[in-house]
Amino acid sequence: MKASLLRLTVVGLLPFLLAACGPEEGEIRVYELTRPGDVAGADRPTPQAPSPGAPAGDRGSAPGPMAGTGNTPPAMPPGGAAAAPDRPSINPSSQMQTLPGMEEAAARIERPEWQVPGTWQVLEPTTIRKGNFRVAQGDEVAEITVTAFPGSVGGLASNVNRWRRQVGLAPLNPEQIAALTVPVQVDGAPAELVSIRVEEGAPSGTQGVLGVVIPRGELTWFVKMIGSSALLHEERDNLQRFAESFQFPS
Amino acid sequence: MWQKFLRPLLLVFTSLRLTVILLVLSMALVFFGTLDQVNFGIHETQKRYFQSFLVFWNPLPPESTNPLARTGLPLPGGYLLGPLLLLNLLAAQFYRFRWSWQKSGILLIHSGLVLLIVSGFVTGFLGYERQMWIDEGGTKNWAESYMENEIVLIDKSEENRDRVYAFDSDHLKGGEIIDDPKLPVTLEIEEYYPNASVRQAGPNMRVEPAATNGAAPRMGLTATPAPETFAQDEFNADTAIVRVYDGDRDLGTWMVSNLLDDRFPPQTFMANGRVYEIALRFKREYYPFSITLRDFAHDRYPGTDIPKNFSSDVVVTDPQAGVERESLIYMNNPLRYGGHTFYQASFANQDTSSMLQVVKNPGWTLPYIAVTLVGLGLVVQFGLGFFRPRRRKTATATAAGNGPQPPSPDAQA
After folding, report:
1. Which of B7, B12, B49, B262 lies at a 20 to 30 A Cα distance from B285?
2. Same domain membership, residue B156 and residue B132
3. How far apart are CA B403 and CA B385, in angstroms?
4. Does the beta carbon of A89 lie under 8 angstroms from any beta carbon of chain B?
5. pLDDT surpasses 90 at B137
6. Looking at B312, B344, B360, which one is the last position of a domain?
7. B152 and B262 fall within a common domain
8. Per-residue pLDDT tens over the stretch A101-124
9. CATH of the domain at A101
10. What SS3 class is residue B269?
11. pLDDT tens sequence across B162-209
12. Given an 8 Å threshold on Cβ–Cβ distance, is B197 in contact with A49?
């Protein structure tokens, strides 16, 4: 009888002992992470909207009306990061992780000849970035990158929507995207100039993207300027001239 | 003396009547929980009904202003029924049943049931789910919750490393002060909204921003409380107004919200000569390994848009263990690594991003063992029972003189 009671008491306490194993709610957790460039620090990846169970295509949209609140939170990331020249790159793609072999493949791609606008600061290119530039006007900053990838890299709409997400805008359908693009000629071949929130006199901190998508043989070249919307508006002609100056090796 | 008190208790806990009552209540819990899924969604219902001691079911929707909505039919929650069932089963096993080979099947069945209930607790207390979104070509070494939130202070002063101080925010209350020796500063939670409407004031609106520092004054943001949502495809915009003290020095207030995610510049302040970022975000967990998404495939049946298969071609890299492992994750074929299971769960961005559901459940093997034990117990018990009636029949027939007669001593002679 006594043994039964003892066993009964022990096993009866089991669930409550298990309950005690759970983490405490008010616990402070302290840990260290290595910054980007190292995988362990990749805590600021491509912007991603956390919408659990969201229908495909909704993810990554700007934080628009949600949670049944009907709220319209700010759709654009304000400036700040771009204003400080010693801060890391403002281009979210700068933290892109690459696959083994991808850099070697990119290194084999020969860059075209081009003419850089005098106002642009030439930065060191990387194996992925064939061209790397920065332009600043007061506190307003924009970055210009030239990259090339095999194939169509998902097509124009996919890339435009990727850029839109990087500045906190919702994706658009192909018809709406077509309205954002202007056909241009690059080295005798058609290309598309894309403007995403490029606005004259936009408030400081409003971010936009200007891009030129250039299909060329088996590659697609991207000339992308990301930064202050107002500065992008002023630099639009420079970017177009820069892209149109491309002379690809024959 | 103590036996006088415990014996009646023991009789109650070992009674079959209690078993029936508990099973009926369990069925009622499942029934009303299923009804409430309409109002609260699966996760909240699970929390309310199966991870609680008491729950009140009410047919009125949660947003109802009817005073009756605050009451309801009381039901024992899973955390009450589970231990009671366990106690009942164990008490009966130890007190009522006598150990014998004839009952070894029942012992196995009961062991399986006990293990099944225990596995429910192990999963409830130690298991969790996270989401890991990866773009094609991208690498991730962390996943985030889609329901739980945390407030983080990130020391950005070191050149290559960030020091992160994090604590859960879902149970915070306005006026709460977080003064912990582990934290580099003291935080006062001036306001906490489980869901908020965060808006940007228009150019002609004279509205005070929600905080004195950071994104709120820079962008003219205001935050007002909003009713919580439990819909599957929505999430609550957890938002807090936090005042930061560096010792006795009041540094001002910041509005932090899971709406202000990675797309927004970090909100920072300086304390003790160090730069800290402050944020409220979905709770993250970092892993000592990383996953690279090489390719996401969304196969369709030829000539239609009907999905045939979703799969993620990934590489797991674990520098500490020296592992670099390729894996294809698809329906019913998850990747198991480092105590975690990665399931193909969703996709987006024109099929260029994949979402993996990351599940950690230390007790994931227990239900398999439990079901095996129950199955084995049934086989053993029925097997023993199969022979037992034959012997009884034989004995009965012998007693009636109809069965085969034992050889008589005369015949043997």
Report:
1. B49
2. no
3. 21
4. no
5. no
6. B360
7. yes
8. 445 566 678 889 999 999 998 887
9. 2.60.120
10. strand
11. 899 999 998 898 889 999 999 999 999 999 999 988 887 655 556 677
12. no
Whether residue A39 has pLDDT greater than 80: no
Q: Which residues contact A208 (CB under 8 A, 6 or more apart)?
A: A167, A195, A196, A197, A198, A199, A202, A226, A227, A228, A229, A232
B188 within some domain: yes
**Among B276, B202, B290, CA closest to B242:** B276
What's the rounded Cα separation, in Å, for the pair B407 and B405?
6
Is A181 a domain residue? yes
SS3 A51: coil
Is residue B156 domain-shared with residue B175, that is, in the same domain?
yes
For A231, the token pair is 């500065």
Tell me if B28 is assigned to some domain.
yes
Residue A175 contacts B, CB cutoff 8 Å: no
Distance CA A237, CA A232 (A): 9
Higher per-residue confidence, B349 vs B113: B113
Q: How confident is the model at residue A53 (pLDDT cuts 50, 70, 90)?
A: very low
What is the structure's pLDDT at A80?
Answer: 26
Q: Smallest Cβ distance to A73: which of B199, B236, B262?
A: B199
The conformation of residue B92, written as its DSSP 8-state character, comes to I
CB pair distance less than 8 Å for A74 and B237: no
Q: Which pLDDT belongs to residue B406?
A: 45
**Token pair of A237 as six digits:** 């002609």
Residue B100 DSSP code: -
Q: What is the mean pLDDT of residues A197-210?
A: 85
Q: How many CB pairs under 8 A join A and B?
A: 250
Domain limits for position A184: 92-244
| Structural domain boundaries enclosing B220 | 146-283
Whether the pLDDT of residue A23 is over 50: the answer is: no
Q: Amino acid identity, residue A106?
A: A
* Predicted-complex ipTM score: 0.75
Q: What are phi and psi of B13, to 5 degrees?
A: -70, -20
Three-state DSSP state, B98: coil
Q: Are residues B135 and B175 in the same domain?
A: no
Query: For chain B, how big is the Rg over CA atoms in Å?
Result: 30
Count of structural domains within chain A: 1
- Chain A residues inside the 8 Å CB shell of B257: 73
Query: In residues, how long is chain B?
Result: 413
Contacts of A150 (CB under 8 A, 6+ apart): A105, A218, A219, A220
- Whether residues B142 and A53 touch (CB distance < 8 A) is answered with no
* B384 inside domain: no
CA-wise closest residue to B246 among B199, B213, B283: B213
Among A15, A27, A97, the residue with its CB nearest the CB of B167 is A27
Among A221, A231, A247, A212, which residue's Cα sits nearest to residue A119? A231
Residue A217 lies in a domain: yes
